Amino acid sequence: MFGATSLAACAVMAVCTTGPADPVTPDSSFVLTLTDARGGTTSVQLTCGPTQGNHPQGEAACRSLERADGDFTRLPVKNQACTMIYSPVLATASGNWHGTPVKFDTEYSNRCVADAHSGGVFSF
Question: Which domains are seen in the chain, by residue range?
């Protein structure tokens, strides 16, 4: 028959022998950049599965990438109004989607359009 002390010792041993949790390797990881016409560049890191990085709307960006199965040319379009002011930005993505290398670049007429036409992936 086990006493309370014996059960506590067994519980401590079980916790101590399990060791630290294995680090989670993300399913997908990207460096995303926006470069304006003057050469000013903004970059963020985005990982999906689990969502991490410094993308300000990482969860929404990962959902958009899931909907497009990682194909940046098939990202969903958000229904939002944008000005018609031409202030072009070059958007690039470099990384991998579920182990498949991804390289993408395109030009949007302004940051708002980049956000809308990428389902929020380029909303930073």
Answer: 25-116 (3.30.350.10)
